């Protein structure tokens, strides 16, 4: 897939200037996201932490190192996937993002999804999962592809959770293998992006 760099750069510029919620007041750097649409995989976590706020890049701390390791375990590099968060400015003291903050940032999520037209959205953590699968429990849903809003959503635990709860580490690696298996049996082609900047259905065979 050709990476729509102009569209993504335009969105990034708006994220960096955004004042739609109070999180902008404490940010050092907004974190629009990075990567490409080459693989058709859109990773979305919860929010930037200290290191992400310093560098303006997603998943560059300890959780990011584990994410890189997880990607490499299924033969992927960071540069071929898109990585972002449901909020793109750091919440104070790394607290959970508030619903109003996620809603304010959702316009950028929708526009990135439209530009990238991913084959699968991988949610990292319960807040990202709730954006697409409200009311679902991550302990029940992780590692299982679902459909939501015309997209295939693949919930997973957040890598940071595995750093605090080592028993989840192996579960993450197992879920990444499930993701790899899913991608191998799913066609790589996607339809052209729609004219309007809103999420659109991805044509997929019935797999689950």
Short description, anyone?
This protein has 208 residues and is α/β, with parallel strands linked by helices.
Structure description:
With 208 residues, the chain is an alpha/beta fold. The protein has a single domain, classed as 3-Layer(aba) Sandwich (Uracil-DNA Glycosylase, subunit E). Helices cover 40% and strands 12% of the residues. The chain has helices at residues 5-16, 50-55, 62-73, 99-116, 126-132, 138-141, 159-164, 167-184; strands at 34-35, 41-45, 82-85, 120-124, 146-148, 151-156. Strands 1-3-2-4-6-5 form a six-stranded mixed β-sheet, sandwiched between helices. Strand 5 (146-148) and strand 6 form a beta hairpin. The chain is globular, with a radius of gyration of 16 Å. The two termini are 25 Å apart.
